[in-house]
Amino acid sequence: MEFGLSLEQRQFDDSLRSFLRDRLPMEQLRALAEPGGGFDEGLWGGLSELGLHGLIVPERFGGAGLGVLDAAVAAEALGYAAAPVPFTGTTVMAPLAFINSATEAQQDEYLPAIAAGEARVAVGFAGLAGQTGTASVTLDGARLTGTVSGVMDAGAATHFLIYLRDGTAALVEASAVTTVSHRSLDRTRPLVDVTFNATAAELLVAANDKLASARRVLDSGRVVLAADTVGAAQTMLDRAVAFAKERVQFGRVIGSFQGVKYMLADCVTMLEPCRGMVWYAAHAQDAMPDEAGLTACHAKAHVADVAREVARMTTETHGGMGFTDLLGLHYWFKRVGFNRQVLGGPERCREEAAALQGWTLHD
Amino acid sequence: MDLSLSEEYQALQAEIRGFIATHGHRSPKVGGGRKRPDRKTLDWQKILLEHGYVGRTIPVEYGGAGKPPDVMEAAVIAAEFARANIYAGLTNQGVSMLVPTLLEVGTEDQKRAYVGPTIRGDIIWCQGYSEPGNGSDLANAQTKAELKDGFWVVNGQKIWTSSAHYADMMFLLCRTEPNAPKHEGLSYLLLSMDSPGIDRRPLKTMTGRSEFNEVFFTDVKVPEQQIVVGRGKGWYVANVTLKHERSMIGNADKVTSRLEQLVRMLGTTEVDGVPLIRQAEFRDRLLRLQGEVIAWKAHNLRLLTEAAQGVDSGVKRMIVKYGGTMLGFRLSSLAVDALGAAGLPFESAGEDAEDDDATTWNIDYMYDVGLMIGGGSNNIQKNIIGERGLDLPREPKVQTATVVGRG
Questions:
Q1: Cβ(B392)–Cβ(A261) under 8 Å?
Q2: B98-132 burial, b if ≥16 CB within 10 A, otherwise e?
Q3: Nearest residue of B to residue A254 by CA position?
Q4: Could you tell me which residues are beta bridge partners of residue A204?
Q5: Run of H or E including A28
Q6: How far does B280 lie from chain A, in Å, by closest CA?
Q7: A178-182 and A169-173: which strand pairing?
Q8: Which segments of B24-85 does DSSP mark as H helices, in order?
Q9: Which of B3, B290, B379 sits opposite A3 (nearest CB)?
């Protein structure tokens, strides 16, 4: 038994973090965040050189053939940097959808392009995910009609892959649909409303159990968002600890006051187990199907709750400066807030965890 | 990431299952609170020692099985006994704290005299640390010992001494160098509880039981060689011991089994004909706790792996006592809330019999608060996490004459 990251995973983590440190100093993050489109060609291309886009794509399609745990490692690094990158949808959920539900010919057509970073498939859920907003789409033959609001990681999408309530996955080209992109609370990632009007779609229906397959994609997306949240919360904690060692009040650095010290001790006590939880849930997606659904729901919910507290207390630690735009701490506060709400908030995820165990309130 | 067991550990697992199938019926009942081991428990301990399931890494010359340390083996053994609900051997303060301390820093004579009898259960130890005036500030201990004619002469008082009412021996933290700075004036002595001048008074706690004692020392004579490491080294030795105590408290087996009990309890307890697990407020609390327990179990797997690799887990280990006791309390809190008014009739049967379920949960619920206070209170843990884990500055020291060298 070995619970933890392999040497290769740690090396990948190191090189990704070092790349992001170089490429995303605060002024660069501000510059990229301001337009709110969640995408930068240069950053995306640089990540391609690190092999990020093909992480999940099987080797025979030009990818690295790795798993959700590797994706979680990458997501934590991206969250730590608040990177404006459409990672969860494009790099994790989309290839998983093709692996789980597409025919060999469809895989052949799309997976190499995904691995190369050229096809950027945004994944939306018309139902299933429990996200608020409009999720009303009907399929007539192979034509989609209706609207899905709040699709994440879609700022520079070349395609939309929409999961319907029954687990059917329908793929359309972005040029064939009407989209409205909203800058979100988290300026590093927009949300896109996509409207279909009898739009011709290619269906991904090769899975034996299409609903189960859709849930696997959703579960993996939730775990990867939780990993991103751990990274974002860790940045806030690291910055608060550093600030508490520098800021002097009443002739003492504020980190020597128990009122401050205990908040930070509480943060690390809550946050550190979340990292193990995310690894466990990610590993369950890769290797323990019986636990995949339950651990994904719980990881998404619990990490979101912990990160809210960490974001609050670390902002408080910075005093008035924490509330200003000047420090930029708010990018991570908002990243935590974004991750909490997309693909189902904690209440929804725990409701699903209850249903998985038969703990329903009504028959 | 590999959560499977290697062939070596699978073989150990199979061996233990075979052992339990053959000998398990001789095991004493699991649980029942802290009391002096009876004949059945001592016989079972002997069988476990013979098979190397306790004292596994203790050298053969001191009565153990002499195997190399292997945290994964230890985890497999603990898991198999827990799974079968079989008594896994004595886990008292002598076995869990004094023995590892002596093996780390004791003399050859001390190891030979005490390790074997302690792991067999023939010698029961208590820990003489806290004093009425010095709880969290352990290094400020004022019980004094003066060397006269080859004996340490001990005078003073200890409190919160678990098991002292039936213990044979005590490991005692006392002040032998009154003029030295407080951390350098302490020594660690090993003494018989039958020594003349010792007065033990059981201290009844809020649970209604006497889990602790006050112990008074009046000119108690302890042979000079009964010191561990040396004069003024007591704080160092005490920290070796505390390290072992803190790692005992807050393990994941306890919170996992409590969660399982809660699922059963909420599934079977009905109010207005509806099981609590189908009532939104109760179900939500259970779900939140389930999430926390999953995180805690994963964290413990991570620590276990790091320990096996010889990696220092740093702040990840420092959070275990604080986080674990708080989670334990939230779990027992839900249990007493699920019991509700029907759980309020409270009659503790004492040490010789088993309590009913509701009384047991209420005792656990109260005892959990005690666990937050004992073994380095949770606020002390937060200081440790902040100062040693996050490298935050200490509180400025208050230097007054009363702190250094009092008494």
A1: yes
A2: bbbbbbebbeeebbebbbbbbbbbebbbbbbbbbe
A3: B393
A4: A169
A5: helix A26-33
A6: 7
A7: unpaired
A8: 39-51, 71-83
A9: B3
Contacts of B280 in chain A (CB under 8 A): 361
Q: Report how far residue A203's alpha carbon sits from residue A145's, in angstroms, rounded to the nearest whole number.
A: 14
CATH of the domain at A18: 1.10.540.10
C-beta separation of A3 from A279 below 8 A: yes
Both tokens of B375, joined, read: 């073994």
B 319-348 near A (Cβ less than 8 A): 319, 322-323
Looking at the predicted structure, is the pLDDT value of residue B34 above 70? no
Mark which residues 266-285 of B lie under 8 Å from A by CB. Answer: 277-280, 283-284
Q: Is residue A362 part of a domain?
A: no
- Count up the domains in chain B and report the number: 3
CA distance A126 to chain B (A): 26
Q: What is the DSSP string of B211-248?
A: -EEEEEEEEEEEETT-BSS-TT-HHHHHHHHHHHHHHH
Cβ separation B389–A302 shorter than 8 A: no
Entry field: residues in chain A:
363
Distance in angstroms (rounded) separating the CA atoms of residues B288 and A304: 12
d(CA A315, CA A331): 11
The answer to whether the Cβ–Cβ distance between A273 and B291 falls below 8 Å is no
What the block records as the tokens of A64 is: 């690295």
Task: Nearest by CB to A350, from B287, B382, B392: name it.
Answer: B287
- Identify the CA nearest to A211 among candidates A299, A127, A95, A297: A127
Rounded Cα distance between B198 and B157, Å, is 10
Q: Quick one: chain A helix, strand, coil %, rounded to 5?
A: 55, 15, 30
Neighbour tally for B147: CB within 10 Å? 14
Q: Are residues A135 and A279 in the same domain?
A: no
Q: What is the pLDDT of residue A319?
A: 96
Structure tokens at A328: 């930029």
Closest CA to B192 of B212, B172, B170, B210: B170
For the segment A281-305, what is each residue's pLDDT rounded down to a tens digit? 999 999 999 999 999 999 999 999 9
Domains in chain A, number: 2
Catalytic residues of B: 245
Query: Domain check: are A200 and A223 in the same one?
Result: no
Of the residues B90, B116, B139, the one at which a domain ends: B90
Give the nearest chain A residue to B303 (CA atoms).
Answer: A3
d(CA B270, CA B224): 63
Q: Which residue has the tokens 């809020």?
A: B206
DSSP-assigned states of every residue in B134-167: BSS-GGG---EEEEETTEEEEEEEE-S-TTTTT-
Average pLDDT, 10 consecutive residues per value, chain A (363 residues): 93 98 97 94 95 97 98 98 98 98 97 96 96 94 96 97 96 97 97 98 94 97 98 98 97 96 98 98 96 98 98 97 95 98 98 96 78
B189-209 average pLDDT score: 93
Residue A181 structural domain: 7-204
Of all residues in chain A, the one with the smallest CA distance to B75 is A1
**Domain at A336, CATH number:** 1.20.140.10
Q: Is residue B171 part of a domain?
A: yes
Residues A195 and A219 in one domain: no
Q: How far apart are CA B295 and CA B307, in angstroms?
A: 18
**Does residue B165 lie within any of the structural domains?**
yes
Q: Do A302 and B386 touch (CB under 8 A)?
A: no
One domain, residues B277 and B197: no
Decide if B315 and A272 are in contact by the 8 Å CB cutoff: yes
Using the predicted structure, report yes or no on whether residue B186 has a pLDDT greater than 70: yes
Residue A28 half-sphere exposure toward CB, CA atoms < 13 A: 14
Q: Which domain holds residue B30?
A: 7-90
Same domain, B257 and B224: no
A250 and A308 both lie in a single domain: yes
Other C-beta atoms lying within 10 Å of the C-beta of residue B249: 18
Residues B253 and B381 in one domain: yes
| pLDDT, tens only, B99-113 | 999 999 999 999 999
